[in-house]
Amino acid sequence: MSEAKPYIAVPVADDGESLWDDHFGEAPRYHLYDHDGQLVEQRDNPYWQDDHDFHTGPQKMVDLLPECGVFIARAMGNGQKILPTRYGVQPVITTETTMRGAIERYLADLEASRDNQ
User: Fold this and answer.
1) Which among 5, 29, 32, 35 is placed 20 to 30 Å from 88, CA to CA?
2) Could you tell me if 26 and 52 are in contact, meaning their C-beta atoms sit under 8 angstroms apart?
3) CA dist., res. 59 & res. 36, Å (int)
4) Looking at residue 47, what is its pLDDT?
5) DSSP helix/strand/coil, 9
6) Closest CA to 20 of 112, 101, 98, 104
7) Residue 111: inside a domain, yes or no?
8) In CATH, what number is assigned to the domain containing residue 85?
């Protein structure tokens, strides 16, 4: 976790509890969590109906979510490949279907990886 990017962004479906089931950049809104799993903000995505491509989609998402060092989603486009090196953002693909499940799984996996070091 970067001190400059302390939050985790998760795309939320219209019901407010389920994880958006399409590409990260196409979600209408995001929930931002801290590394204790607490919801700190909800942010609308003004680009959610735009056409996305490999070159502009990641930049728009990083600009929209500058304080987020982790993007969790069920799907991401090819732009996820440049997130770590170009923007310092860790893309995480999950099979979880709920917001809470996605955050809890990510934090548990993070803790397990720290324990194994």
Assistant:
1) 29
2) yes
3) 27
4) 81
5) strand
6) 98
7) yes
8) 3.30.420.130
91 part of a folded domain: yes
Arithmetic mean of pLDDT, 5-18: 94
Asked if the structure places residue 1 within a domain, the reply is no
Calpha distance 95→102 (Å, rounded): 8
Show the domain range for 75: 7-115
Any residues with CB less than 8 A from the CB of 74 and at least 6 apart, and which? Answer: 19, 20, 21, 22, 93, 94, 95, 96, 97
Amino acid type, 111: E
Entry pTM: 0.89
Average pLDDT, the chain: 89
SS3 97: coil
For residue range 51-102, list pLDDT tens digits in order.
Answer: 655 445 788 899 999 999 999 999 988 888 889 999 999 999 999 999 999 9
Which three-class secondary structure state does DSSP give residue 29? strand
Given a cut of 60, whether residue 46 has pLDDT beyond it is yes
The count of structural domains within the chain is 1
What's the pLDDT score for residue 54?
A: 42
